[in-house]
Amino acid sequence: MAQGNSTEVDSAFARATQLHEAGDLEGAIRAYQAILASHPQRADVRSNLGAAYSRLGRYEDAIEQYKQALALLPKRQTS
What is the pLDDT of residues 12-28, one digit of tens each? Predict the structure, then answer.
């Protein structure tokens, strides 16, 4: 996926999510990976990729994606 505007990325994410929800986990994984190739800082995409891996029993891959997604999120202030 080329460096596109956020509308293109959001549309690609919506398509990937539809595949995921429809049970096409392999297709969803490919779609999430395509987004991450040009937008690696998308925590939401990494989280969904982790969920797809988890549903396939690829737990190590899932954990890695979840860790990367968490690292991208802003740190919460606790007081």
Answer: 999 999 999 999 999 99
